[in-house]
Amino acid sequence: MFETLRQSLKIGVVTTSYPQTPPEFSSRARGKPEIDWANWKDARPAAAICPTGAISYEDVNGQRVARFDLAKCIFCGLCADVDPAIRMTNQCECAARRRDDLVTSASYSLNPDGTHDRLLPPPSPPKTRPAELSPPQRESLEAVGRQIKGRAAQMFGRSLHIREVDAGSCNGCEVEIVGLNGPVYDIERFGIHFVASPRHADLLLVTGPVTRNMELALRKTYDAMPAPRLVVAVGACGCSGGIFGQNYATCGSVDSVIPVDIYIPGCPPNPHALLQGILLAIGRLK
Amino acid sequence: MNLLPGLQTVLDELTQRFGAQIEHAHAPHPNELYLQTKLELAGAFCSAFYKKHDGRLAGVFAEDARAGQKVFFVYYLYALDSAHGFVLVRVPIPEDNPEMTSLTNALHAVNWQEREIQDLFGIQLIGHPNPRRCALHDDWPEVYPLRKDFDLHTKLPPFSGPRHKFREVEGEGVFQVPVGPVHAGIIEPGHFLFSVAGEPVLYLQLRMFYVHKATEKLFESLPIPHCVRLAESISGDSSFAHATAFCHAVERAAGVEAPPRARALRTLCLELERLYNHVADIGAICTDVAFVTANMHAMRLKERVLRVNEQLTGNRLLRGMACLGGVRFDFDADHLRALAGLVDEFEKEFNELVELIRGNSGTRDRLETTGVLKPEVAHDLGVVGIAGRASGFDHDLRRDFPHDFYDQVQFTVPVFTEGDVQRRMVVRREELFQSFSILRQVMERLPAGPIQTKVGEVPPDRVALGWVEGWRGEIFHWIHTAPGNRLARCKVKDPSLQNWPALTEAILGNIIPDFPVVNKSFNLSYSGTDR
ipTM of the predicted structure? Predict the structure, then answer.
């Protein structure tokens, strides 16, 4: 007993001070890629080498629309190896509230040799919602949404219980999520706990492309949670299906099964990225 | 045919015994022999390998060759330790009568694998003691996903109906305790049905394949270089081991070899993967017997390895490091200094952790004689890896079929016969001590030179086996190439698939509260099993 205590005292505190201080990275750490949209000359090599289709393009009538979907990106860095306009940053905190916020695209004029140049409009801001609702309707709906979000933040801001569901991940995300409970990231210092039952949970942390065999279990887990509740989709697979996409055995993303409040890209997202996403979900980060 | 002398002897003896029944004997690589024979002789070959040639059946898988040859092929992969080679016995199954004789009655180790072939290829098993569905749940429609005429993107109706018809266990005071697929902790999904009388477990039934995500089918749809990234996603905690096993297979098919420095760097990464997983498992085992302090120290050590992983390869789980023909990132002097520093510090602190655990008698009380897997049972079930080595399975691909740089380093393989949770933990501990030594030896002898050999377009219709002893156990990737730098088939064999049935044996007679620790001591990958 004494030895156990002595050992702990000797080691001292190992917990990071994130988010007060920014995460520390080594120089090689790969976060999200950054595309120099203005000087991008050819999307084809990067699109061809991208294993998940995060970089894609479409040529129509002499124009090319190039697209980068951070939700699909596994941060492998292969695109940066072949394309001078792409650079890997060590930026890992890229959680977003809307799926569309993770997509960037730009239009170019197409050259006869297949390259492109002359950026037509600047990189598109996140797309607006589909205009099925009339503007007043949409406004009121959004106001309600904002109110609920605000209330959720108020309710969960000080203490939050998380239920984690693996809906088909490769267990890479779990390796990192388990780390949140460790002494280094220590999520409990925020008053956030992982709980065993969805009935005790405020937030559902979901990984994986949602396999056909897990779809019902995920729905039931979600239904078992008391409202208000939040859902966070974790990892490239959770956000977009990742390298698995949609196939005979998978649904292709968490938001195709239950509504998602926060998307945390990465493959897997590192603990800082997970913390950022969770804190963003409960309104502790702006 | 350029064959290892040991394998040549085996081939000569088999030819003497089976004569003209052996067709198409060929060896694309000196330690990889292919034979074709009739289905009726599959059992006789199996018995010959086990009884005469020190062989064991390391995998069974099928391939749809109906387009060219109007048959399905079933492959039996034998690992022959003393001959240092692999023999793949191939039997054709006619497309109009897809049936195969089961070997499960004689060799229980192939139970799940045979059923998986039945589910995914629609090849009916004859004489299987338990031919129920395994890889596809009971509610799946009659589809055979790995047949070539089944499209990857087929839209199936959502889940409905029964998941699995479990066996009924009845008796006075017998209760059923269903657990999962969503578990209490942060772990992967699977369903466990315990039948208990009081606290002791009478019978445990497993329902896996909740995370089946068409991985093997996906391999057939992607260009070969993209498949490396897919291989990283088979089991996240073995990202590098799986990706490297896949790269080995492709390199063999393409006839290229990774340069010495790349092989050494791969070895370092494989050992780093072993380091962070083993220490995390030791911690988790302690948590499951309420010694949480030890787990906190273990998680601290694990985090340290993950950070060095990021420093060396850009990713904490070593993703993006593997590539065809070598590795993507070289280690410079600073990197090697960081790695050497990690090994020294880790070793020192790990020793302290070991002492901490050793000094806690309550932990040992809970771990010893808990979840015993007897060597005979382990042998019958073909249990591999850590779990196997705690139950007398004296095999390690790093020693018996050295890949990468393992033929250049000295190490021992810890083997125990008690087969309890304590020994599964001790195997990890001893393997960590070996890892420190392996890491140091490789760093001392790190060859200079390039880190990649160019692997161009892989010629079609080649077959090759890739293997790696991952931290959990042996990983095999078998590929058959197709035109256009693609794959006609990629079979992935994770040790978990082999080891799951052992859990149902190890838990018998133990109490349910000990299940988490017994399960953790195996720590099998659900994703690697289900793919």
Answer: 0.90
